[in-house]
Amino acid sequence: MTQTTGRIDDFGMDTISLAGPLPQKLQAIREAGFTQVMLSARDLVGHEGGLDAAIAAVRASGLRVTGFQVLRDFEGLSGQMHDYKVDIAKSMLDLCAAVGAKVLLVCSSTSAHASGDRDLIARDLRKLAMLALPYGIRIAFEALSWGRSIEQFPDAWDVICRADMPNLGLGLDSFHLLATRTPLTELQWLDPQRIFLVQLADFMWQEIRSVEERISTARHFRVFPGEGAHSADVATLVATLHAQGYRGDFSFEVFNDDYQQIAPAVVARRARQAANWLGEDILRRSVPLPGLMRLREASARG
């Protein structure tokens, strides 16, 4: 029986996975059948027509904005460094609101100047969440696998619970989870209502042997789910989250140097294949895409 909960609307793409100017990226994502997009701040501020034109392009695309990324190295600082990052955060919240994004992604700090004190980290995240409240924006805190003190999602979840703000939740990234080999059994301790974003990617090799290789792989050699060496783990992650009650967005965040040399439409079609696989084969859900039924009918006639 076809279920209505498994449409393509559950999946989106990050603009950072595509080459080219913002309007071209948005067109490729839309024409691939997606209805949502995860925006990068660089796509807006770097748009040749200026910020207002970039915002207009997002609105004209008809795509729902999954979220906005990314605020880095925010927590654990003091003095002038803390004040500086608060100003940056306010500017990013303004941009986030301008494009209608309801989620701001924040990555755990890699700064050598950041404290590892979890109560201090929680205090800073609480402050950020309070700044976001008037905008109606939620903060998704993600553990970078090379973070200074928060590098796995159970650690991120700990400081989120300490901060205790309703608009502060977890951002999950399958790459970082796989790279650190965090047991998927740890997912059982999460409140699915406090998971604000799930980003999906895979990579080609079985294991990562150093932090340097982890960073290099993350920034240059990710692939879409179903294309890499960890497809079964990505599938288990998605299925487990769904079984636990997660009904939020999935977005494909694939940093890949090869994809930066390929037409955006081609890369977007690869993402669509990943959405088909996860939606139909893994979650046993329907993922209707433009022209899909015509393709099936043609295949049956052939």
From TrEMBL:
Keyword terms of this UniProt record: Isomerase
UniProt keyword Isomerase present: yes
SUPFAM superfamilies referenced in this protein's UniProt entry, alphabetically: Xylose isomerase-like
Keyword Cell membrane (UniProt): no
GO terms of molecular function: isomerase activity
One Pfam assignment: AP_endonuc_2
Domain of life per record: Bacteria
Residue span, Xylose isomerase-like TIM barrel domain: 26-277
Protein name stated in the entry: Sugar phosphate isomerase/epimerase
